[in-house]
Design a protein that fits this description.
This protein is of the alpha/beta class and 434 residues long. It folds into two domains: 238 residues, Glycogen Phosphorylase B (Rossmann fold), CATH 3.40.50; 152 residues, Glycogen Phosphorylase B (Rossmann fold, 3-Layer(aba) Sandwich). Helix content is 42%, strand content 13%. It contains 17 helices and 13 strands. Helix 11 links the parallel strand 8 and strand 9.
Amino acid sequence: MFINNKNKFDYLNIKFMASIVFLVDYEEGHVLPTFGLAQSLQKRGHDINYIGIHDLKELVIANGFKFHVIDEASYPKEISRKFKEAQRNYGISPKIFFYDIVEDEICDLLLKINPNVVIVNTFLSLEALLISYFLNIKPVIFTPYFLPRNSPRVECMQYLYFLSTTNVLKLLNYYMEVWSGTSLTTSNSTKLKDLLTREILDKFLSPLDEFTEIVACPQQFDYSIEIKKSNTFYIEPSIRKETYIANRSFIFNLHKESRKIIYASMGSQNLRIATECEKIFRKLIGVMNSAAMQDHFLILSTGTDLKFADLHPLPENIKIFEWVSQIEVLKFCKVAIIHGGFNSVKECIFYGVPMIIFPMGYDQPENANRVEFHGLGVQENYKTITEEKLALMIIHLSESKKVKQNISKMQEIFWEKESDQEGVLLIEKIAANN
């Protein structure tokens, strides 16, 4: 299964074409970091396919990859926006589940594609586990940022807590039949907590310990260099290359700008934090109105989900966009003001841009802590920071030799890792062995 005898594999020297599939969840922030790796693999001649919900189709295709939509009944078009609105309005953080379509839909699709490697987002660790049982393969786990938890097994355990006791029992019953021809009964476990501590659950999860895990960032950006386990690999930062540059003429003329360029964006998920974003953007407009900032030029990206028409009129030293090519803008920036999403942090490091971070949640506070730990920027509270302090921070970071030295050192590590393509070679080795 998943072996194509027509392919001749030598992952170091000989040209070959492998078929590689990425199974992703709905979060853009989890999908974007796969693109750099996928682009590098595609450039070396490999066939790249993505599997996910409808809302990701346009994004994936725009970046040059084939896309296969799954589970449209449960996750129709625009469901991602509804998820974000639910989180903003009710504090609910929705999670998607594919476990019930793994056998009939995902595995059928994989058999048609016939990939040599299946790469699964770490937040779909349960689906990766089920794929391994159904198809007798070991998916590769793709972890998009440094997780506080220790392993895909722990992530999968967290996943199971979202499911009802009945659904967990169904899963275990199915695999008990596979293991020993026996089944669990509801009488021997009536509480989910009891079920999750049983030996049988450990056995169910144990294949996850054997899966290769790739973390899309050099480990030098973490607090310490300590490998979690032998099959965890910290690979290149997987910085994507833009396939489409929005506002092309504006971007291409930035090199003519004599003022110091500042970039501000609160990420692709800012529908969830609309109120917070507006407060930050208003403070930035006040900052740019001050006399001290007249030799600076702010590029403000509000996000496509939000419309802040009442931010106008703007001072002459601000240009506002719903969306602008962040990667291209960062090439000209002195300072970036961001919310601390891991993709944005990595891109700032890659292009040598000091950061002011206003973390909102998720992994952002820890990412901001790492930025401060390595002297690559500062973090602040958007609620309490004054316009005067923010202006001083921007000026300090744009002029600090120490910060410049720190970020240049980390940038060099990122460039070297990206050039070495450890992740690409690892995936090719796995493809060769399949």
